Please model this.
Amino acid sequence: MKLAEYGDAHMDLALHGLELKTLDPYLSGWRMRVVPALGHLAVRMITNGAVDRTVQNWIADELSRSTVKNTIAVLVRVMEQAVRDGIIKVNPARVTGSQKLYKQAEDELLGPRALTLPDWETLIALADALVAASHDQYRGWGDVAVFAACTAARIGEISGCRIGDIDTTQWIWTVRRQTTPAPGRLTDKGTKGTRARRVPIVEEIRPLVAQRILSADPHPDTHLFTDPPGERTSTTVLRNATHWDNVATKLGYEHLRHHDLRHTALTWFADAGVQVHVLRRIAGHGSPTTTQRHLHPDVHKITAAGAALSAHFNVLRAPPSLPGPVVMTR
Model:
């Protein structure tokens, strides 16, 4: 039996005794995160490794600590019920290192540029490799990767990108945050508050966007990025269809996640001199601190910053120039 079927059938038993204020976030975590990520697997196929990778993906998608905690908790309860039913012997969902994973994500223990592609050529090589590795060599997989690495957008936001969101006169994309209330179904939450932001479309990807607009249905609500069946591209589908992990490892980026394309874009913007408060608006972050954790400047930029500060000090220390002699004229 698949995890989604088992959990839905035994949810009353698994969540027995919980208070109502706890029950709602648990059920939300089950529907919105556990089922889309693991629901297609049989209960016996849920391993510690599968749970760890799933938790890492939730963290990469910038879910809060409390959200991840509640989601893990409901998964633990469902799998504990499976243990009581004799389906499995050990509960694989008892994750004890989620806080450590958060610390690793925040401190970037893998190195200052480990989560960032170095240049445009590497990005194109990655996009081409993803297309080549897919079953149907669908060009759209590569387009999504390039678009993400040049706009600092999440894959879920790209999947919701519509023709009407693109202003080709100013080359600005109005990004509308998306949520997933049910597997495979994205709901636009509109433009209230800070959930909508504007992102520049750089010259390098304007031809890509223009071509997709020309080849798409001219209706403004038509989505630009879809998978071969015509559905909007999701993170899981992109990863599975392109064999992302294998491709990234072969290219020498074994730690590269789909979300790191967002890190790449923000780092490239920063390398180009865009200030943090502007980057925060582009990324849609609530705090500049969050934006700074996404930036991975290289050594050359760091040494250049030191040279710039030294030059500034030299200007401040230089004596003011004296006025020249006054020449009297008749």
About this structure: The chain is about 55% helix and 5% strand. The longest helix spans residues 65-84. The longest strand covers residues 172-176.
